[in-house]
Amino acid sequence: MLPKDFPKWQLVYYYYWKWSNLECFDLLLPKLREKVRFNRGQNTMPSLGIMDSQSVRWGNNRYLNSFDGNKKVKGIKRHIVVDKNGFLLAIMVTVANVHDSKAADLLMRTLHYFLCPIKVILADGGYRGEVIENIKNKFGYIIQVVMRSDDRKIGFKPIHKRWIVERTFSWFDNDRRLCRNYELLFETSENMVKISTIKLLLNKI
C-alpha cells in the first residue's frame, strides 16, 4: 500500500531494516529535536519530561494482542516520554495488559540509554507507589505525580503540562500507520512512532 511514487516495496523494506539495524532513527531523532528546540530559543537538551501511555487497538493482526482492562482496549500499549513541546524522547511498546508502573522501569532504562539529562518527569496517578523511589535510586529521575481535579463545578480543565503528552498521542493518530497497530514486532511498532516524530520535526524545521 505504498504511494505510487515509491520504489517497489521490497526495496523500501530493505532500506527500512538496514536503517533500523544501524539505529539511524535513534540518531536522527535527537538531532532534529535539538534543532527545533534551538530555533525556538530553548536549551537543546530538555530538563523536564512528561510520561504517559496509550492503549492502541490491533489492526489486521492479533499477534501483539492483549486486553487493557482499564481502557477496554484489545491491542498494545505505547509508553512514551516527551519534552515540554511534546517531542518524543523515549518510547517502549508492550502488550496492553502491562500496567504503567510495571513498564516505567524499562522505559526509564531506554531514556537513560540515550543519555537524556532530564531531571523531573511529570506523570499521572498510574505511576504512584514504590516505582517513584525505585526510579530515583536507579536513574536519578524525579517523578512528580500530577493528579486530575475531581471538582465537576470547574468543568473541563487541561491538567498542568500533562496535556502536552496527550497532544502527542493525538499527533500519532493523524498517521494511518499509527491509529491502529498493524505491526508484528514491538521494535517495528516503536520505529513507526519514531519515524512519525521525525516527519513532524522536519515539518517544523
Task: Give a verbal description of the structure.
It is a single chain. With 205 residues, the chain is α/β, with parallel strands linked by helices. The chain contains 7 helices and 6 strands. Strands 1, 2, 3, 4, 5 and 6 form a 6-stranded mixed sheet that branches. The mean pLDDT is 87.
Give short descriptive properties of this protein.
single chain, about 200 residues, alpha/beta, 6-stranded mixed β-sheet, about 40% helix, globular
The tally of helices reads 7
Biggest sheet statistics: 6 strands, mixed
Number-wise, the strands total: 6
Order of helices and strands: HHEEEEHEHEHHH
Shape: globular
Mean pLDDT: 87
| Estimated share of beta-strand residues | 15-25%
Uncertain regions spanning at least 5 consecutive residues: none
Helical proportion? 40-55%
Q: How far do the termini sit from each other?
A: 28 Å
In short:
The protein starts with 8 loop residues before the first helix and ends with a helix. The protein is α/β, with parallel strands linked by helices and 205 residues long.
SSE map:
Elements: H1 9-21, H2 24-39, E1 48-57, E2 66-68, E3 73-82, E4 88-95, H3 100-113, E5 120-123, H4 130-139, E6 142-145, H5 163-173, H6 176-179, H7 186-204
Parallel strand pairs: 1-5, 5-6
Antiparallel strand pairs: 1-3, 2-3, 3-4
Helix pairs in contact: 2-7, 3-4
